[in-house]
Amino acid sequence: MTARILDGKALAEELRADFQKRAAALATRRHRPGLAVLLVGEDPASQVYVRNKVAACAAAGIFSQKLVYPADVAEATVLAQIAALNADPRIHGILVQLPLPRHFDEQAVLEAIAPEKDVDGFHAENMGALAQGRPRFIPCTPYGVMQMLAANGVDPLGQEAVIVGRSNIVGKPMALLLIHAGATVTVCHSKTRDLACHTRRADILIAAAGKPRFITADMVKPGAVVIDVGINRLPPEAGGKLCGDVDFETVRDVASLVSPVPGGVGPMTIAMLLANTIEAAEREAGR
Ligand code: NDP
After folding, report:
1. How far, in Å, from the CA of 210 to the mean position of ligand 1?
2. What is the pLDDT of residue 20?
3. Are residues 167 and 261 in the same domain?
4. How much of the chain is in helix, strand and coil states, percent to nearest 5?
5. pLDDT on residue 167
6. Which of 4, 32, 52, 287 is 20 to 30 A away from residue 249, measured at CA?
7. Of the residues 107, 141, 190, 205, which should be mutated to test ligand 1's pocket, given the most ligand atoms within 8 Å of the CB?
8. 285 is a domain residue
9. Are residues 110 and 161 in the same domain?
10. CA–CA–CA angle 235, 238, 242 (5° rounding)
11. In terms of residue numbers, what domain contains 223?
12. pLDDT per residue over 206-224, tens digit each?
């Protein structure tokens, strides 16, 4: 079997027309959606993500403001900026690019964002609402995965879903969304015994461990749907390219559907950030 490719780039492009229409409609009502992106430090991957997010806003007609700080900035400075953005009527969404430098209390920074502007969905109030099945904002990466499944006719209802990774930004919210969609969910992590025994049961396998190509064909059930969330940069001696957590070339011979890296979940994560920002502006306009 050769798997069909879950093309996140094409799906994100399809969604853009809808975003442009909604952003333009809001702008005519003097509610042009606005997103603020805060970047602390010089991490090259974070710089690329922020650049892509700002460019995607421009393409969709969303106002964006990029705020860059050196790695040694005081946490209080960033908190003061977030407080100002919370009160800024031009801004409907605030995103702090993670990871933050070690001297930051990451959770305290995320909690400083007003929950109604928390378009990443990482605030405890929004995570709690998601856990209860009444989300205000769905975290962008798992939201993008759910959209990719739906767009390709994959209904999680009654299916065995296995997630490799339990982070607050990917694994946990992914598990909640799949539970609410009716899947039977297993969450694996670094302490899981016999990982392959779990992954081989999966009808839907989500890889989000940050380990290059570590999901190999022998770990995948024939016909499974495999979503690769991982973004890993190979070392220069291995070509320096981006790759996922899934060994794409071998897994595509076993799976029925597989998402590539790049061009899979990454573009959908950005698309869902735009969706959440527009939704925040629509809520504000409706108030
Ligand atoms: P984290 O490092 O926060 O979490 C990784 C998770 O994987 C942890 O739960 C960890 O377990 C688990 N894990 C690590 N090694 C193993 C192993 N050998 N076996 C089983 N589980 C393991 O990463 P993130 O969740 O932030 O990101 C995961 C990946 O997704 C990264 O490659 C990241 O770059 C990418 N990413 C991609 C996005 C996109 O837009 N496509 C967006 C966000 C992230 P434990 O908890 O026990 O340590």
Report:
1. 4
2. 98
3. yes
4. 45, 15, 40
5. 98
6. 52
7. 190
8. no
9. no
10. 65
11. 140-266
12. 999 999 999 999 999 999 9
